[in-house]
Amino acid sequence: MSIANPVQNIAGQPDITAIKAKMKATWMDGDYALFARYMEPGALRILEEWDIAPNVQLLDVGCGAGQIAIPAARAGVKVTGADIADNLIAHARKRAEQEGLSAHFEIADAEDLPYDEASFDAVTSLIGAMFAPQPLKVAAEFARVCRSGGRLAMANWTPNGLVGKMFKVISAHVPPPPGVAPAPLWGDEDTVTQRLQDGFTDIQLTRKDYTAWRYPLSVPEVVTFFFHSYGPTKRAFAALDTAGQMSLREGLIEVFAAHNVARDGSTEFHGAEYLDVRAIRR
Prior knowledge:
Elements: H1 16-28, H2 32-37, H3 40-50, E1 57-61, H4 69-74, E2 78-83, H5 86-99, E3 104-107, E4 120-126, H6 135-145, E5 146-157, H7 162-173, H8 189-196, E6 200-209, E7 214-215, H9 219-229, H10 231-238, H11 242-258, E8 267-268, E9 273-281
Parallel strand pairs: 1-2, 1-4, 2-3, 4-5
Antiparallel strand pairs: 5-9, 6-9, 7-8
């Protein structure tokens, strides 16, 4: 069973304002700060690979609760984190305050960043900006706020990895707004190159596995955890009737089980593929 929930204006075009409001509500739902804890080991590995030096002026777009912004600040990076979700920014600010870090966190739209041109030495986005509905605007904003010679680093889910498959299951039950590009296209090499090539050079794209993603829970329990704590799955579940909820649960269990390598009743995901994107501002 599926429920269409288009967000269109009177001319039949996507109503971006309504779409963004719905996306913001989605990411503020659940408990992403809790959800992200299980992904933190993998996030730290990605941050280490990006090798951002101390004193670099860094903008982390779609920073969430500070998954990489906080550890980067600990290492001496001059971090600004931006996200559309008010509650996640509040959580990141609290973490920074508790640790005595000078990181700054602001509510901001990846498509309309409140910063001057060439304000940052580096721009990052860990599974964040890929969800903004207008990717060309995101790419243009990345280029605008990054200084010439500065670095861009992103990690984006691919269409055919674990999370890409999860979103396909969700979309089959609760279709996304028409006219909006699927978020996992930020994990497609040709698409990313086309989006970045005007503002960036030396674009390097590498498919990698998001490692150390583990839960002390069975696969069905992990699905339940997603329904409670991860905004996109929570909202999709709530939009369905009982039969639709059962179908969504079964679909996610099938995908998660196919990517679980644990054999002790817990869950350890393998094949959570993402595209590592690195580029230099022209």
